[in-house]
Amino acid sequence: xxxxxxxxxxxxxxxxxxxxxxxxxxxxxxxxxxxxxxxxxxxxxxxxxxxxxxxxxxxxxxxxxxxxxxxxxxxxxxxxxxxxxxxxxxxxxxxxxxxxxxxxxxxxxxxxxxxxxxxxxxxxxxxxxxxxxxxxxxxxxxxxxxxxxxxxxxxxxxxxxxxxxxxxxxxxxxxxxxxxxxxxxxxxxxxxxxxxxxxxxxxxxxxxxxxxxxxxxxxxxxxxxxxxxxxxxxxxxxxxxxxxxxxxxxxxxxxxxxxxxxxxxxxxxxxxxxxxxxxxxxxxxxxxxxxxxxxxxxxxxxxxxxxxxxxxxxxxxxxxxxxxxxxxxxxxxxxxxxxxxxxxxxxxxxxxxxxxxxxxxxxxxxxxxxxxxxxxxxxxxxxxxxxxxxxxxxxxxxxxxxxxxxxxxxxxxxxxxxxxxxxxxxxxxxxxxxxxxxxxxxxxxxxxxxxxxxxxxxxxxxxxxxxxxxxxxxxxxxxxxxxxxx
Length: 486
Known about the structure:
Blueprint: E1 8-11, E2 14-17, E3 27-30, H1 33-44, H2 51-58, E4 68-75, E5 82-89, E6 94-96, E7 107-116, H3 117-120, H4 124-134, H5 149-158, H6 160-164, H7 171-174, H8 193-197, E8 212-221, H9 226-230, E9 236-243, H10 246-266, E10 278-280, H11 284-319, E11 327-333, E12 335-344, E13 347-356, E14 358-360, E15 379-382, E16 390-395, H12 397-402, E17 406-408, H13 417-423, H14 426-435, E18 439-442, H15 445-450, H16 459-469, E19 472-485
Helix pairs in contact: 4-11, 5-11, 10-11
């Protein structure tokens, strides 16, 4: 028999899942009616993976504050729904493995160039080939930066700075990365030897799955105040890099599932789904996990920094640019757990904010944003699909009040990878993209099928929902020209 989830619409793109049973707080969903109908349909079909059930389960966790949140790219994940946000009191709350997931600090970097579409149009195949050859991609891919255990430890502490000091980029890059590319509190001793060994050759690699390199054109400026601040203009060529902490982050997740399973029993915390195993934030297990997450986050920042350096080198070689002409707009992650200061019910307090498939979206005035961006808020980078569009957004004051300064990270899956691979053929997807003028280079046609545009929600509708809710504001729309997939 299907569970009952009574959702109340409180605004045009905001819905409430009232407290019931063991829920400590309500659920709050920012989404349009189409998304809500699909969530209800999943409940009615009694699907084992059910995002509403997962949202309810998150709302039952100890120390959660205000509400368990979901954004319009919501779909089922491991424990937390993807597109989910949970903020926890530091004394009473918990650190949750499912609130971060296995691709720790997976995120996006956006590079801006001085080129326009006409300048690269005839060279698009050569550019796609150059990126395909210079940036290692695919399952188990390895790069040229080979590290020892001691060097890995340094990287886990320093993050992007570690690779910049070895010639992979500049100080100016670091100024345009979330947290300057280094999360504090990272202790390599909290990361297993196996996790480190799996990362020896993977810094500066793209990986597989939904990770990508995409050459894009700024198709339309939607916010004439913020776009010039970010250095974006219509017709401009940009490059998006989507990847994370690779094998190291995945191993951290696997390792701490076991650790937190024991901790959940030790602290008598009910576990409603395996990936919701957790420990009190102040406990030894909680502290160790958050330190390991910081290490994974720093690994991801270093990885995107190294990939960006390789992309920059390709653009310099092919188009005669200077390295400084290829500028980092911003780099931000969307699988994290970090302590941040937020105002709840008129009280400003430090909270541990888990974002699973959700990005930080600080609006105007936050000192954490790079100084040039503070007046408008920092950019957030939203991936669509390789056949549609992506977006640059920014946070708002309302989003800081209502959503713990969180934003969407992408379109959100409509089909699982298995269902997508059963429905689409990689070669057909490639041909369809070519007919639309999009050049594709991929290491796996099955991977292309899994990531077919039809496997995802309509990103335009997802973006419109957060804009209608007032929590994120569109700045620019980006259209793909060339794509490199693992």
